[in-house]
Design goal:
binds iron/sulfur cluster; alpha+beta; five-stranded mixed sheet; about 210 residues; globular; 2 domains; Sulfite Reductase Hemoprotein, domain 1
């Protein structure tokens, strides 16, 4: 059996595979779309799915097609996902650059080794279109900087994230996330998601340790 990268999963038919790739912050150019379409046609992909995390999954692949497809696509195969809104580059309401922040978050943390998977949301204003309050880690732009959120979930035990810090510059927010991930790695149980970790430990304890 071929070893598959994470993000490549066997499908319900137990025969074919899906390859999930991550357009950075969910942004694609016309050239990207043409490349994806060319690869999909070449390997007779019957359908593609845009996932809830702003990723793209090519479905119905044979096992020996997975590797070449990953190599030929213009995006990397999924790690932790970073969901972002258009922020102040495109949206009239944006007060912070969510796309630039999401690119940095993705660069620094999408492959982080942590006890369980991470979902991250970066929103350019309080309207919070990237669902930052229901993600393991969230960022919300305000006129005074970034609010850093931890411990949200939109799953069956939905939880609104706790505010870890407010009015952070981009570099302060990124450094705080890095410190939080170190703390999470050192103190959480294997497979314990961030919301459960926060429930157990309490935001005050986490804040005292990190802020
Ligand atoms: S969160 Fe704010 S900046 Fe981002 S898309 Fe929504 S309204 Fe626009």
């Amino acid at each position: 059996m071929i070893e598959l990268p994470s993000g490549c999963v066997k499908q319900r038919d137990k025969k074919t595979y899906g390859v999930r790739v991550t357009p950075p912050a969910g942004m694609l150019t016309p050239d990207d779309l043409e490349t994806v379409a060319r690869v999909a046609r070449k390997y007779a992909v019957p359908v593609l799915k845009i996932t809830s995390g702003q990723r793209l999954t090519l479905l119905g692949l044979k096992e020996d097609e997975v590797g070449p497809v990953c190599d030929e696509l213009p995006f990397k195969v999924a790690g932790h996902y970073v969901q972002a809104c258009p922020g102040n580059q495109w949206c009239q309401f944006g007060v912070q650059d969510a796309l630039e922040m999401a690119a940095e978050v993705e660069k620094r943390f999408s492959c982080a080794t942590v006890p369980a998977k991470l979902k991250l949301g970066v929103s350019g204003c309080f309207i919070c279109c990237a669902e930052s309050y229901v993600r393991d880690l969230g960022l919300v732009g305000t006129r005074k900087g970034w609010t850093v959120l931890v411990g949200g979930s939109s799953g069956c035990s939905a939880r609104v994230a706790d505010v870890l810090a407010e009015e952070q510059s981009q570099s302060q927010a990124l450094d705080l996330i890095a410190r939080f991930l170190d703390y999470y790695r050192e103190n959480a149980l294997i497979m314990q998601r961030v919301p459960h970790f926060l429930e157990e430990r309490g935001i005050e304890t986490v804040r005292r340790a990190l802020v």
